[in-house]
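Appendix B. One record, verbatim.
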Amino acid sequence: MDRLDALNGTSPLFLKIFHTALLMHDQDLWRVMRQDDNGNEFLVGAHASREDAEAEAARLEARGHKQTYWVDPPSLPAPPPRVISIQSFVNHGRVGNSVATFALQRMGIEVCPIHTVTYSSHLGYKGWRGQATPVSLLEELLDGLSNLSIWEKTDALLTGFLKDTERAEIALDAARRVRGARPETTWICDPVLGDQGRLYVDASMIDFYKGALSQVDILTPNASELGWLSGKNLEAPTREAVLDAARQIAGELRPGGWVIAKGWQLPESDDKQLELFVVSDTQHYRITAPRWPRGFAGAGDLFAACLTAALLDTSKDAPEAAMEATCKVASILEMTWRAGADELELIRAQGLLEQTSRADVTIEAL
């Protein structure tokens, strides 16, 4: 006896509710369906495999009833979110799009990567080779995405190493295009300018970012970048000075914007911890995470990618997303450190991209 035979004599309204509940429960299974003499369709059974479902349908058909039986596949999930990621690409190593694309895809995000440069490695390696992507080609790529109506399907824009103001204008153009199609699209901007007081790019890029802040939703500067963009001297900062600089910039972002200031080790901090400050113009949070004996190229790019994925879950606000991203990055950095690897152990550690909490990563409101 199948599940519907057991309900003979039940009211039609109850049957309709029952069938709807079954369909909702079994939508991720192979479903055996039946059509009765009046053309009504019903769910008969649900199975984890196609073979089992087809075997049940064949058994029911063999009973000689007039009804028609067939097998429906599992319902497809909703399309994944889509991110346009504009940053560098390297043949060797884990920086820029070479880390962000895989990380985002592993977390279930569709990615359209646009490479501002193609280098053999990041610039920390001696003998690196490569060149910037011609601006004319970048413009063509944006036009091609427009022809495919990609902007209407984009949920976030992620930008990293842009190299110079010409290529930075391409990123700004992408922001305008995606906002023209979907005004609510989030722009997560990692303003890659330099680190430890040394600029990687021309100083004109500082002015570019200052002029673009009003279009940005989430800004993720490191310690040096926060100082350059705020115009404040943060060479020997206090916590209040960092918060003041981040608060100033947050007030210049799109309404509701957040600054996530990364990689701080302040005089009042535990020397085995790094601090991140998650700051809007009205709210301030501090995240603490373990500090490793050396830095890792691409850690900031990985953080921005993990942050972007977390923000696409609309149930999370910026502090929650930053906390989750910090946990993922801390776990991958730990595996990289313990392996003694030169580059992020992203492939071997990819399962850690599912991690959302760590006992040694904490958050508090300030």
